[in-house]
Amino acid sequence: MAEQRVHRVTAPLSDEAVAAIRAGDRVLITGIIYTARDAAHKRMVESLERGEPLPFDPKGAVIYYVGPTPPKPGQVIGSAGPTTSVRMDKYTPAVLAQGVKAVIGKGYRSEEVKKALVQYRSLYLVSTGGAGALLARQIKAARVIAYEDLGPEAIRELQVVDFPTVCIHDIYGGDQYAEGQKAWKLA
Amino acid sequence: MAVRELHVDQITDAVARLVQEANFVLSEDVKLALAQARQREESAVGRAILEELVENYTIAETESVPMCQDTGAAVVFIEVGQDVHLVGGDLKEAINRGVAKGYTEGYLRKSMLDDPLRRKNTGDNTPAMIHIDLVPGDKVHIAVDCKGGGSENMSRLAMLKPSDGWEGVKKFVIDTVANAGPNACPPLIVGVGVGGTFDKVGYLAKRSLLRPVGQPSPDPEWAAREQELLTEINKLGVGPMGLGGRVTALAVHIETMGCHITALPVAVNIECHSHRHKHTVL
């Protein structure tokens, strides 16, 4: 594989920044991102079905699939690595349709999500699963903005600096899991 | 032999300590396996991920923070010596109190629900998944495996036909790992149970994860099969975090049991690289 290209982007993301990123590129995110996982996605999509808005401005937004550990006294956030994305597949197309430009998790996505990423010109990014202590260092502030009763699954607004991700699916239909694994598979 | 009295509060305290240690300090066997993987990995992206994992567990250990945000379901294997008299209360309640204490005091994430469909968080990470075994002697052995959901979800069980044989078992294990891919946070430790009944085979697969990573089965024939599976799995190309590479699994552990003439049960319990297992003897 060629040298990995690195992009430094600001969240919320612009359409231009998204268009420049290809599957396999490293993407370092600075700015505001939102946490949401299983239960929060269920509620978000239910509220959209009732014609209510999302609890944050979706335009250019980045959603991080994470349920952090509780912070110790003096900590901004506890351990905060990505959770498995496939559980969000059922809800993702509806969320992308609102203008969300990237989602961060780990693992494979469904065919429907891959199509929706191309259709809505959004990115699927992953960060290193299990590296929650390391990733938490890039989170400089955190506050709950919705669904507080969901505990670790509440929606949080995070301020991040150089949050490290790799692009798996770009807006052109690229698939880095398929490419990367094909390159190393032995007969 | 005289009966030895042991207060269950000691079990509560031991469980509380073990669940925290498991989440903050990666065991030496897993650290060694990751270091060897770093040597073996040819993919630059794969090597970078393995380096991140080393940095991650170093931060976790130094700062006493969980290495992964999913601090797991507490799976507790407890072996009680026949010559031990447990006093002071109910053993299972004592274990659950220990889980609640450890997860609360350690600022670990509470991920357990009261009911699989009503889905209300219990708030203290109970119930623990408890396996109790009565063994000879006057000691109590406690092992905990803090089992993350991402890898657990990619685990599978099959009731094969006897004619499927080793080839059938092999195919099922490899297919399960290939299907898990990046979802399960590779490099993985693959726990395999073969034999027994439907309920026992899952237990065997889970229990095999308690063995130090890479320690072969004491049965040379099965040890060779573990090696064969590891070699095949590492040909898949999945690599660290599924981004491609030579190291998909760090080890394969198989535990076996006799079974019915009609049966060939096989279970694959997949474990992520944040393999949080700790044990103690009281």
Description:
By secondary structure, chain A is of the alpha/beta class. Chain A has one domain (6-186): Fe-S hydro-lyase, tartrate dehydratase beta-type, catalytic domain (fumarase). In chain A, 25% of the residues lie in helices and 27% in strands. Chain A is built from six helices and seven strands; from the N terminus they run βαβαβαβαβαββα. Chain A has helices at 15-20, 38-49, 92-96, 111-119, 132-136, 176-184; strands at residues 6-11, 26-35, 62-64, 102-105, 123-126, 139-146, 155-169. Chain A has a five-stranded mixed barrel. Chain A is globular, with a radius of gyration of 16 Å. Chain A starts with 5 loop residues before the first strand and ends with a helix. Chain B is of the alpha/beta class and 282 residues long. Chain B folds into two domains: 4-24 and 67-147, no CATH class; 149-275. Chain B has eight helices and ten strands. Chain B has a four-stranded mixed β-sheet with strand order 4-2-5-10. Chains A and B meet through helix 5 and helix 6 of A and helix 3 of B.
Provide a short characterization of the protein structure:
Chain A: One of its GO terms (molecular function) is hydro-lyase activity. Chain A: Residues 11-179 form the Fe-S hydro-lyase tartrate dehydratase beta-type catalytic domain. The complex is a heterodimer of chains A (187) and B (282). Chain A has 187 residues and is α/β, with parallel strands linked by helices.
